[in-house]
Amino acid sequence: MAAEKEMIREIEVLNAYGIHARPAALLVKAAGKYRSDVFIGHDASDEVSAKSIMGLLTIEGHKGTKLRIRTCGVDAEAAMNEIIKLFETKFLED
Amino acid sequence: MSISLKQLFEAGKQRLGLELVSGGEISLNRTIEESALNRPGLALTGFFQYFAQRRLQVFGLAEFTYLKSLPQAEQEIRVRALLKKKIPGIVVARNRYPVPWLRDLAEAFHTPVFRTPLITSNFINECILLIEELTAPRGRLQGTMLEIMGIGVLLKGPAGIGKSEAALSLIKKGYSLVSDDVTEVIRQSGRLTTYANEMTRYHMEIRGVGIVHVPSLFGVSAIRRKAELDIVIELHPYVNDLEEERTGITPGEIEILGLRRPLYSLPVSSGRDMANIIEATALNYKLKLLGHDAAKELNEKIIEHFLRKTGKTDGR
Q1: Which residues of chain B does A32 touch, with a Cβ-Cβ cutoff of 8 Å?
Q2: Phi and psi dihedrals of B139, rounded to 5?
Q3: The complex's ipTM?
Q4: pLDDT, tens digit, for every residue of A68-82?
Q5: How is residue B221 annotated by DSSP?
Q6: Of A45, A46, A53, the CB nearest to B211
Q7: Do A45 and B180 touch (CB under 8 A)?
Q8: Pick from B9, B175, B205, B1: which is nearest to B89 by CA?
Q9: Which residues, other chains included, contact A94 with Cβ-Cβ below 8 Å and sequence gap of 6+?
Q10: Cα radius of gyration rounded to whole Å, chain B
Q11: Does B182 touch chain A (CB under 8 A)?
């Protein structure tokens, strides 16, 4: 069995409308595919599970916000890559 | 603890009617290190052997009347002595305005002067409460918060276990929702007060349905602005060999912001109506609060019965 791993990356919100309901739903869908826990927040104190729409809507991720993504579990790296990709492709918006 | 005057001023504008009369923005970078306030009456008489100089200084009727009894030149000397102690700021109570020379003097010492319409004792009480609220430890919990018959219950568990669905059933039973999935918590003395994030307040997400507005669907009685956190219920998938609570004599515990709360771990499996079980857990906890611990009482009854049978009177 693969070992547990923790990854932390910082990323900026690039899409014009920020993390509103649609991007949040995409994130939840992506994070839900992995066994790892996925957290997003501004720092360690306010992170929320990326598997929760309500959580993601509370982090106030408007355009230009720097967010901290943390994944931990057996497939932490794959989860991180997919989440980062969503941010980089602006959640297929704009 | 430490809080900047700017934070206090922003929060106090509404709650305390605070107004900044002099000192300007720069002076607001100062911090206060104590939640208590000081009335500088004794210091104004020239007694500085014991002076709480790290506290905000409140000028009330006593201070004003005393200063007024002195010639103006002397008044300035006394206030200057106070300002030299590098006090964080002055609050003038009872809707008074500080006299121009006091404002100039405070300005020279880069000390902010506020005024408030409240009478002095009320201001002191309210201000201490506000400072304690602003400096209270706070955090964010992953979980859905409900109030069941006066018992604040935080529902935790992995994504997709059915927290929101259970919450929905409980709302239908007449209990109230505080927050869905993300719960803000603040510790005030021995209490944990929970409330929802401003942005998503009173909304919840139900899989397959989407985001719903709870009071629109179920009425205002279905929601609560805040609630105290009494117990934590964790839902987890049913696993055969997992250690489970079968007697309820010794519930687990969880630490939140340094305070301990009972933790009940409930296995979820098909055919178990979680809403009913959560309700029973909360009510059973309430019964315990009332001094009636069913599990313990039954156990004592059993032990007593055994002891009678074996003829022993003691030896548990």
Answers
A1: 159-160
A2: -165, -175
A3: 0.77
A4: 999 999 999 999 999
A5: G
A6: A53
A7: no
A8: B9
A9: A15, A16
A10: 28
A11: yes
